[in-house]
Amino acid sequence: MTAIDPRASVAHSARMGAGVRVGPFAVIGEGVVVGNGSSIGAHVVLHDATEVGAGVRIDDMAVIGKRPMRSPRSATTSASEDLPPARIGDGSIVGSHSVVYRGARIGDRVLVADYASVREEVVVSDETIVGNGVVIENRCRIGSRVKLETKAYVCALSEVGDGCFVAPGAVFTNDNYLGRTKERFLHHRGPTLERGARVGANATLLPGIRVGKEGVVAAGSVATRDVPAAQIVLGAPARPFRDVPESHFLDNQA
After folding, report:
1. I need a surface site. Which of 13, 170, 174, 212 has the fewest CB within 10 A?
2. What are phi and psi of 240, to 5 degrees?
3. Is residue 28 part of a domain?
4. Whole-angstrom Cα distance, residue 228 to residue 194?
5. What's 208's domain CATH number?
6. Sign of the CA dihedral 229, 239, 159, 94?
7. pLDDT tens track for 224-235
8. Residue 123: how many CA atoms within 13 Å on its side-chain side?
9. How many domains is the chain partitioned into structurally?
10. What is the separation of C-alpha 119 from the centre of its chain, rounded to a whole number of angstroms?
11. Apex CA 239: angle with CA 241 and CA 231, to 5°?
12. Which contiguous run of DSSP H or E holds residue 141?
């Protein structure tokens, strides 16, 4: 049996599964689908056509399916009318005050912590953690079992492979021209982290660089060029330090 607080606003065309709970002052738009056993907190907004899987928990004040804001000067923002509905996969949790934009796809058993922002055309794969205050800008691909720790910033057009770790305060960048000249659009791309790569706290990755499989960018470093597989780099600019011990490899963990 569903339990919808009488102070909530639920559109007639919304489809609510068995055992769904909806808190006070939640707003559930036209065509929204909420799977069995999901919990929608107080003041949550589910915009039109949003898809929420089974067993999902969405905490107070979260917003799902928000349309992006586009300025005439926006470099990578998509027109909202071209975007598919936002989707939250089975068993996922979206924290309080988080915003997941229309066109984002959140996989199964993902944690999107409080105050996180997941922009349009982002894919976050299964069992990934998006930490408190993390920002994932548009057109990013985040693999499965990734950890993006508190206040990490993943810029538009970035890719993060399966099993990667990005520590608190790490910053990805995608524009070597700092917003000047049209030439920047020919080279506009974010960093790529291959499977099992790791980035330390407060490290900065410059546009388009690739961190190879099991590569590590040490805390506070500025990576200005590609990082070889299974190598640790450190410094500003980052330079090779030593190899990653095989005992640290992703495949060698329990």
Report:
1. 13
2. -55, 135
3. no
4. 10
5. 2.160.10.10
6. positive
7. 999 999 999 999
8. 9
9. 1
10. 7
11. 50
12. strand 141-142
